[in-house]
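The passage that follows is intended for readers who have already worked through the single-chain material. We present the inputs for a multi-component assembly, then the predicted structure in tokenized form, and finally a short commentary. You are encouraged to pause after the input and sketch how you expect the pieces to fit together before reading on.
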Amino acid sequence: MRQMKIDIEDEVLPNDMSGTQLNDENYEGGAGIVLKKGPWTSTEDDILVDYVKKHGEGNWNAVQKHTGLLRCGKSCRLRWANHLRPNLKKGAFAAEEERLTAELHAKMGNKWARMAAHLPGRTDNEIKNYWNTRIKRRQRAGLPLYPPEVSLQALQESQHSQSTGGLNGGDKMHPDFLQKNSYEIHDAIFDSLKDNQGILPYVHELSDISVYGNKLKGLDSSQYCSFVPPTSPKRKRLKESTIPFIDSCAMKKKDLYPFDQIQDNNSDKIAQSFGMQAPLDPGLSSHSSMCYSHSLSNGNSSTSKPYEAMKLELPSLQYPELDLGSWGSSPPPSLLESVDDFLQSPTAISTLESDCSSPQNSGLLDALLYQAKTMSSSKNHCSDKSSNSSTATPGDRADSSILNVYETEWEDYADPVSPFGATSILNECPALRANANSLNGQLPVQTLTGNLPKLESVDQVWTPNNENLTLSLLNITRPDFLLASDWYDLGSGHCKNQTITTDAATAFLGDDLATDLKHMTAGISKTMFENPFQPL
DNA sequence: AACGCACCCAACCGCGGCTTT
DNA sequence: TAAAGCCGCGGTTGGGTGCGT
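Having made your guess, compare it with the prediction:
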């Protein structure tokens, strides 16, 4: 009540009034002054500006002491930085600022302060607010999070990093290169993944696997740097990477349904992370998150109902700006749904459940370990899901979902306006176009109607003679890309980073489990990449 | 006009890192 | 070396506003 009274009175003390001179009503207990919260008044602003003019920025806690301003130092700093600081831009973001923001976010992730350094006159808070609203807006509109040019740039840089990564073996890279080179897209991806740990527990701390692997093996820095966060050389905010959603044992109240909070922003980002730049269906990523919410919160497999519910929540009038991502009339299933299906498999469920009670909730490696352990004890699941999709029955959920992925992706490629549509990419990137000649004229545009592409075309595409670039073009747009592509050499058919995973895993898990892990990841990769259009 | 809803954004909160004592 | 204080960052919240019904 006293706080409210202060707010209402909106009294600001004279500049020279020290805290000890305040009326007793402004004290809380013996020593603590009741500091004001809420909106700043112009008088308070004047006092703060005056103080900063005299004393400069910093030492914010002294503001209250010197001016009697009933604001904590934090609040003063925030007010100054976000509103009172000179040369601040106000108003809507210009087109160039929007573009730059998207580009920076693609590179940095949610590093608002760093982004603000590249946007003169804009504050981190402003950028953050802008981005969050932008995410929601674009998600509602069914637009990709990043503009096509940013997506393309990310793709090209990723391609470049993949193609050159192996050539830098052992070379020490300049820190600037670690910060600014093309590998940053990986960081963005992994930032997003970390952001989405609640959605995909299995990708949790993916970067750490690489880091561990490199530390253990002394691998070349190119591999290492591809996963090094560009912002902080050391681990920051451990909680972000050590509290996956599944850690329900340590759940806070609001974590009971973590996806409710993150579905808007992060599900789209996870799709972005997987290369799904263009949306499949407005709100579909949210649907995916909802699926996770259902499947992971109660352990039941229920994908259809949330999907329907979400569709109902998003009437067609919410698709106003389909200038970039016009999609087929029948929305294909989400990639995440496929993953969801996989996670909802008995194996995955048991994994999740066991993970919940496990003291090891440290990330993908653990998840894979549990997965491997479970799979090793139930080979049927393993073979069904990872290496034997050709024998799957139509009723097999996992395989049908994988098939859905293929359909989805071909629609993606066939979509002339999709940022990752084959046409747009090939038109904009001559190198890719040259490598994708075998694709020309064979794009299964038929899939826009929801049908499968012709298998003979697919066979041609996926012959062993195809270049990695073409395959990479495809695999980067795959949901499993992050889970598998970096471990699987598409040209040779081997796990190119097998030594990383195997050795790192061996070091951590022991030979048996590491072998299971290797087989599992290889199996998934092999199936995905060698039989991408395997008929059911 | 009233109501509900969604959006926007300023401000707060909690945490971790750095510096000082 | 440890503790305390300060600062900055990122996530979240809540109030104001506009729009549609």
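Commentary: Residues 241-316+326-530 of chain A form one domain. Chain A has four domains: 2-84, 95-141, 148-240, 241-316+326-530. How closely did your sketch match?
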